[in-house]
Amino acid sequence: MTELARRAGLGDDELSTILAGTPPGVLSMTGGFPNPATFARDELAEIAARLVRDDAAALQYAPCEGVASVRAYLRDRQQHLQGARPADDELIVTSGGMECLALVCSALIDPGDVVAVEAPTYLGALLALRRAEAEPVGVAMDEQGLRVDALAELLAGGARPKLLYTIPDFQNPTGRTLPLARRRELVELCRAHGVLIVEDVAYRELAFADDAPPTLWSLAPDVVLQAGTFSKVLFPGVRLGWASGPAPLVAALAAAKQTTDQCAGALGQRIVEEYGRGGGFGRALPAARALYAQHWAALDAALRDAMPAGVVWTRPRGGFLTLLDLPAPLDALALREAALAAGVAYVPGPPFHPDGGGRDTLRLSFSSLGETELATAARRLAGVVREAAATAA
Asked: Which of 51, 86, 164, 186 could form a disulfide with 244 if both were Cys (CB 3.0 to 4.6 A apart)?
């Protein structure tokens, strides 16, 4: 057999495990998957059928940067949602948020480059960085998200990260949101030190209330590259996202895309455009936000009712995710098999940390299970935690 490239062995299989699903009878709280009830199937079916019948260009190759009308729509959408409009050469259509991260790695990262990330952070981003042979360095968080003072201390100590990857809104895996004051401090700090910010806004449009602070990109488009996706607000199968930022960086992403898929699928692009211009997001997102808010309320209530003393968890104001902290000496990795046997699945903390830390934490997704199932899952998990704590006492 041909010898594999060195980078082929980098990373781990945690993301594949999440995507693969769970055994029958196990209530899965692993993947950050949107609830199928939020998919506008009838409307999307009509749009897709019309495009296939009437728009031959939707079935053809597209320009690398994206279909012109789609990019114009996305720039309009940025203006409407974020109060700032990227120029024509400041936005590119991508095949989902993960492809944007892969393009960033291809265009910007050399082996050995230091990249600052939140600790913990999205495990897919860590896998992409490791595949690019970068050196991710964690920046501490607290209940308000990324600690800008910790990043300042890192920079003052001589670290020169190529970029900072951050999820300011309903962060994965913690669900935390960075407040406005910190956002302003963060962009000023990174501007002063010449550090590019890669802002992932995957969950931003799923706020439970209309009080989200401005995006980092809207505050500082000169130092921020924003990565977005339609997987959470439309449906994951469309595999469509975008990147907006300084024109030279967007051009570098386009050059990198020439050697990957060359273009995002034109049919998916046109579906997003037609759905959006027809008001689909405005009609569907309020119900989706309400659904996820109800799911979170059900899970939070069940955790409060069932969990033993010493267990704490984050309280998101949007998105799909919460992070539990277990009391010492409990280990979320060690408890996973017992949890599966009890009929509940979660993601232990270490895959979200660049240094493998977080063994006393676990991530729960509340998007896909119904309210009754969430309550059952919380009770099952609480029983496993209570038994482990009693054994350790």
From this structure: 86
